[in-house]
Specification:
about 120 residues, mainly beta
Length: about 120
């Protein structure tokens, strides 16, 4: 059974940092590219960051470029999202997801497995 479990969310002041983790089980992690998405209240789920199988290539939404960093540790079956210089508009539920094929990392429809999400709230 495939499981993706996010952790590390919480309440932080604007300008602060958080590191989200995604623990992956039930699949061979180095055969999957990984992504982080987020969904703010009343809005659609949006792409945040993606990473290829080895971690050698990363991709970011324009809104987080330069502030967020995605990384992975295949030996530990973990994916991370380091979030710095947080803004109130970063408030959302953050989801980890895994994609087995060569689909568009920025497209929700391309992903095979999803976590349940972790909530991030940034106060002004």
């Amino acid at each position: 059974q495939v499981q993706l479990v996010e952790s590390g969310g919480g309440l932080v002041q604007a300008g602060g940092s958080l590191r989200l983790s995604c623990a992956v089980s039930g699949l061979t992690m180095d055969k999957y590219r990984m992504g982080w998405f987020r969904q703010a209240p009343g809005r659609e789920r949006d792409f945040v960051a993606g990473i290829n199988w080895s971690g050698s290539y990363t991709y970011y939404a324009d809104s987080v470029q330069g502030r967020f960093t995605i990384s992975r540790d295949n030996a530990k079956n973990l994916v991370y999202l380091q979030m710095n210089s947080l803004k109130p508009e970063d408030t959302a539920v953050y989801y980890c997801a895994a994609i087995s094929g060569f689909g568009d990392l920025r497209s929700m429809a391309a992903y095979n497995f999803w976590g349940q999400g972790t909530r991030v709230t940034v106060s002004s």
